[in-house]
Amino acid sequence: MSLRKSADFAIDKPADRPCPNLRADDFGCRIHDRLRDNGFPGCVAYDCFGAGQRITQVTFDGRTWRDHPDEASTIFPAFMTMTGVHEVLWHLDQARLLCEGPLRASVVDELDRVNALGDLPADELARLDVVPALTPAMDLVKRVSRLARADLHGPDLAGQSLVGADLRRTDLRGANLRSTTLLGADLRRVDLSLADLAGADLRAARLDGADLSGALFLRTSSLESAQGDARTRLPTNVRRPTHWAGPRRGRPERK
Questions:
Q1: Of 36, 54, 142, 177, which residue is least crowded by CB atoms under 10 Å?
Q2: Helices 101-117 + 72-96 axis angle, to 10
């Protein structure tokens, strides 16, 4: 993938070209333990949802673009497609836990359908038009989300730009925050119970003391670029970022 020099990446890198930090022997990152210090917080927040492993180990049976450069033109687009497939699989799996009965059966059926896309031959996977292929699955996920949040009547802020917004006095329980830009937003001590955070941009968002324990579709990778502390409550299946500070000392902040 391409990198653009910014607050997330220290360099410009065109697509289909290895990162200069990629080790030649094992495909590891030579600065993995100090990515933030070297200007690559975007790498810390990235998640391929296991698509890379499936492409290498299953689709291409262990072959890589380095060992088989003639296959690179198929490996790269196949990987991008697989990343989309695996991201949707993650959302469907989360949705499966939020519903029951016929709706849950529909989610399980969609899980099987989308997973089968990942089993396509490499050339078909590389050519797959992912938007029409995956849209029905994401529409189903959104339906599950609406039903899970229905009793709280939270605000619909999906896709909005809330850059730097002070949201400490906003009731965001059950809010629709899908793909909402919360860059630098102040969410300290905010209750985000049943708020849908799928695709929300949380870079530099202040989450000190916030309650995300009941948030929906929250990923560890989304939190890696946010700011939180030991008081921030998270779902049991979400790992606390290691760079988050402990509780702040001094006078309590006003909500």
A1: 36
A2: 170
Rounded to an integer, what distance in angstroms lies between the CA atom of residue 52 and that of residue 8? 21
Contact, 232 vs 209, CB < 8 A? yes
Q: How far is CA 92 from CA 37, 131, 139, 172, 200, in A?
A: 35, 16, 10, 23, 17
Backbone angles phi and psi of 196, in degrees to 5:
-85, 110
Task: Please report, for the domain that includes residue 243, its CATH number.
Answer: 2.160.20.80
Q: Which two tokens stand for residue 84?
A: 């989309």
Overall number of domains in the chain: 2
**Phi and psi of 227, rounded to 5°?**
-115, 130
Q: What is the pTM of this model?
A: 0.90
59 plus 141 within the same structural domain = yes
Q: Token digits for 18?
A: 């290895």
Q: Is 21 a domain residue?
A: no
160 and 142 part of one domain: no
Tell me the per-residue pLDDT of 27-67, one tens digit each, with 9 for 90 and over: 999 999 999 899 998 898 889 999 999 999 999 999 999 99
Supply angle C-alpha 123, 128, 133, rounded to 5: 150
- Domain residue limits at 173: 153-248
Strand partners, 163: none
Alpha carbon distance 165, 202 (integer Å): 12
Distance separating alpha carbons of residues 98 and 147, to the nearest angstrom: 9
- Positive or negative, the CA dihedral 191, 150, 238, 227 is negative
Last residue of a domain, one of 93, 118, 150: 150
Q: How crowded is residue 173: how many other Cβ atoms within 10 Å of its Cβ?
A: 19
Among 135, 150, 165, the domain-final residue is 150
Cβ neighbours of 252 (radius 10 Å): 8
